[in-house]
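The methods section describes the discrete structure representation at length, but only in general terms. What matters is that the chain and its backbone geometry are given together, residue for residue. For illustration, here is how one protein appears when written out as sequence plus structure tokens:
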Amino acid sequence: MVQPSPLQDQTLAASSLSMGDRLLETLFTYSAQGLLLIGVSATRPPQYQVISANSIGQQLLGNHFSVASLFQDRALLTFFDQCWQQQMPLQGCHRGLCFTMVPLREPTSTAGFIVAFLQHEPSHSPLAENPQRLTQLVDQLLGFIFSCESTPPWRLTYLSQGCYGVTGYTPREFYSRGDQGWNQITHPQDLPLVNETLQQAIAHASPYDIEYRILHRDGHPRWVREQGIPVLNVQGQVIAIDGVITDITAWKELHDALDQPIIHLNESLGNDFCRGLVLYLSQRLGIDYVLIGELTGPQQNWVTTLALSYRGELQPPLSYNLDDTPCASVLTADTCFYNHGVARLFPKDEMLRDLQIESYIGVPLRNAKGETLGILALMHPQPLERIAVIESLLKIFAVRVTAELERIRAERAQQERQAQLDQQLRYERLISTVASEFINLPLTQIPQAIHKVLGLLGEMTEADRVYLFQPDDSEGTTFSNTYEWCLPGIEPQQENLQGVPEREFPLFFEALKTQGWVLWPTMQALPTDAPDRQGIEAQKIQSLLAVALKHGSQLIGFLGIDFVRQPQPHLENFLPLLQVMGQVFTNVLERQESERSLRLAESQYRSIFENATEGIFQSSPNGHYLKINPALARIYGYDSPAELQAHITDIAGQLYVNPRRREEFIQAVTATGTVTDFESQVYRKDGQIIWISENARAVYDDKGRLAYFEGTVVDITDRKLSESTIHYQAFHDLLTGLPNRALFDDRLPMALAEARRQQQRVGVMFLDLDRFKIINDTLGHAVGDQLLQQVAKRLVHCLRETDTVARWGGDEFTVILPMVHHPNDLAIVAERILCALKPEFMLDGHHLHITTSIGIAVYPDHGQSADVLLRNADIALYRAKETGRNTYQFYTN
């Protein structure tokens, strides 16, 4: 553990000083030497105070001086006085330590700072020799440095040039205002709080940190953060206040925006999340149009909206081409922003023109592979304000929207695959039903059966008309509609289509005789002068599919389906089904060749049975397989159906992982006659466990006794794995593999409930990696991500299997430690974590070191609920940060 330095104990630490993080970070970039920042009071004689020191400066100073004796050494104090009085850089050595001092004083003030460079041997620093360069660095800080008197009204004695960017006033203008310079621009409602804070800081000689509003020169209020520290003389009396003030307006607005109640969004998934987000952004930001769009089309040059809102109301989805639109620019950029005249910049974008859009901002939705999946965009009829806040919000939400878009795509693909499997199963059921209807059917019942089958075929294909034509004589020159099924509301055509000669539909009959089918998805493809077109338009047909019924080479009829209400662009998908059905009808219509035709139908059925991708079976009620196809043998890992039948003699005991599932299967199928989507886990031949889905029916003999079960089996292991993967991703951090905040929030209440029952303690830790942002900004996000992954692995090795470590977000981690006997046990774990992070990390050739600060809260000592414990652990974390980082702190009241 890193111990606090003597300077932090007796002077003012850089971590608790307003200018430390900004001034020193800039100056340290230019100096590898020890560095001291010394405040100088406006009193006579001047009083000196060490404000901050870098690590090298602390080490050098600690080897030669104690902090208490630094300004009590007469020689050294004289050296400081000479530097300040002469207002010029001085160099000198004393007691083995060499000082290079550079004074910084505002011309209108007698207070200021001295920057001292320390080293064992004399050296020359460009900054030390050129105070103007050092002053320029101070003026470039994000904010400005100030010094003021220690009594109301806190008259300003020093201001760096950065005050102009924050307030709109120059230092000289503040000096000219006299005693009330800063108070005049402090927001009246916040001025009492500011005065009280300064008085408390002076009374206790302690640093302070406050956020409040000022009135900018342009008349708009601005939020600022003031961090200051009292300057003490040798008697310990406060003689001045030094500090820094920064503009936090943009941060405040972003914080307020994210602080709105959006719990319902976090609980939503997929399309619900997208719709909720566009409504939230539209209402929160006051933007007319907010859209989330997915890239579509073969060339990914179209956008289809997943969610679109106009003034807080959801709009119907729409699709548009990306060419010549601002959205096209988003795909190759990080952020695309047009605040004025976007419709004029993209004159071909009709939507911008029609909606009178003036401003546009959009961000791409990119996955972890860098692929652009869509866009998140805002459009408004007036120029946008608070651009930085809007851009930050869009980028924050873009990460979640991308994840939801990937979820939507995965679910859509799964649904499409399932739909294909369901359709194939329905086809097989229909074919099985049709074959069963016509086998050994008495001649008198054939017309009724044909009507029934035509209806089933219509329902299966969602056609408007299904019909069967037969020749009127042996010559086959005219055909009549002998059987027809129509959807309710569709006009029948059977009476009008009797004795139809081939010459009235020459293209139709030519296709039937030459290729065996007619497939016309749209009638526009037919020549306008074709005789077929007139007859088809009279029937109001928009799509047509027919297959020939042949006996040898002779056309003995045709089976067809029509689509009247709307065209069917995927008509070819029904051709295999209609061909099989056509063969069945051929067999039925040719009773004189019934035996041969029935064998052919059985052969077709056997081909489907043998070559189907789903397993098909017949099993006895006592658990034996009576008949199975090769696909079922493959699903269960056997080389052949015979091997499966020989090996599995007890389906319940040998096949099902849970033997009771067989009993549940029998109960379900006997109760209703059928069972669908009956999912179970079964053993393959090699012992592997897979998931299957069964669809089956009970078959009874002529006396009503249960004869056997028959049905299909589908291997759904991949689907189950996909569902498991989606569930895992919902509760784990994709970068580190650790539980995410959602899983942590689920486990902590359970751990607290168990602790209440067992009367035990539970430890909650909040970890934050120290200065991780510097590594991330310097070496890039790729190295930063690798570092987070390595840190996660080390954290896991520090904990028990019963503990939970989660990635809270960014570089923050949280830990649950149940069954804690004494708080000292948590201190041991914290020490273990600190030690585990000490070894260097080798990442892409970089030797990196990282430390962490840890806050600890204990149930029930520090809180009874999850929220309170987390909040108190967070407070302890920041206390660990304040005490020097790379340490841990328990929460104290």
